[in-house]
Specification:
This protein has one domain: NAD(P)-binding Rossmann-like Domain (Rossmann fold, 3-Layer(aba) Sandwich). The longest helix has 26 residues. Strand 6, helix 4 and strand 7 form a beta-alpha-beta unit. The chain is built from eight helices and seven strands. It is an alpha/beta fold.
């Protein structure tokens, strides 16, 4: 019943980075949906912690130019792309992205307004709100954090044709691999890291296709579609099975 355990206690390979991998799978799919090849895309990641740091690394490995990264102390920018491994070393040594030699310093709030294709808010809730949503220049927003976009910002972003992939879909990778951990423990048979990552990718992209199809068929935002689809599935199961016990 407990997931996220150390490997020695029956944990799963890939659990630590699962949320970040899931965010990356969805981000790449969303970029392609908007006609943007990842190898020609630029990104900014707000937050360089448990989710943001690995998301930035995986995006860079996929060919995306990660131009800006921020944390609670400040932000750094390099239009040609940040060296994420070097930045990670700097953060381990200093505790912050601030002062990284391979980039220029910018204000943390400025990261939201960078002229990039993809914005990944991966730290705290409410960073996109009615006061700054109109200044967002990204084409795609993929929510790595829980609740980073307020309802007011959601409306503004939709009016400006910004594709917002909601947290309920985008950052589900951690929950999915926790489920994988439970499955493996029930079988007493543990999967290799590549097996976990392959199954995670399949689940994330399947969910993306279901939510996207539901949204397009009904003219909904991805956030509304994800919520409606979830409620619909639960309601259907209740109707088929009945209330119990």
């Amino acid at each position: 019943i407990v997931t996220g355990k150390p490997i020695a206690l029956g944990g799963s390979q890939g659990r630590a980075s699962a949320t970040s991998r899931g965010v990356t799978h969805i981000a790449l799919a969303a970029l392609r949906h908007r006609g943007i090849e990842p190898s020609r895309a630029s990104a900014a990641v707000q937050g360089f912690g448990k989710v943001g740091a690995d998301a930035a690394r995986f995006l860079a490995e996929a060919g995306v130019t990660v131009a800006g990264v921020s944390d609670q102390y400040g932000a750094v920018f390099n239009a040609a792309g940040l060296d994420i491994e070097a930045l990670s070393d700097h953060v381990r040594a200093t505790g912050s992205v601030v002062g990284f030699a391979g980039a220029e310093a910018i204000d943390g709030a400025q990261l939201i307004t960078l002229d990039v294709d993809l914005l990944v808010p991966a730290a705290v809730e409410g960073v996109l709100h009615g006061g700054n949503a109109a200044t967002v220049r990204a084409t795609v927003i993929v929510e790595g954090a829980n609740g980073p976009t307020t309802p007011g910002a959601d409306r503004i972003l939709r009016e400006n044709d910004v594709l917002v992939v909601p947290d309920i879909l985008a950052n589900a990778g951690g929950v999915i691999v926790s489920y994988f951990e439970w499955v493996q423990a029930n079988q007493a048979y543990w999967w290799r890291a590549d097996e976990v990552e392959s199954r995670l990718e399949e689940r994330m992209l399947s969910a993306w296709q279901h939510v996207l199809g539901y949204a397009e068929a009904r003219g909904l935002s991805l956030r509304t579609a994800a919520t409606a689809l979830a409620v619909e599935r639960v309601a259907e199961a209740h109707k088929l099975r009945g209330l119990y016990p």
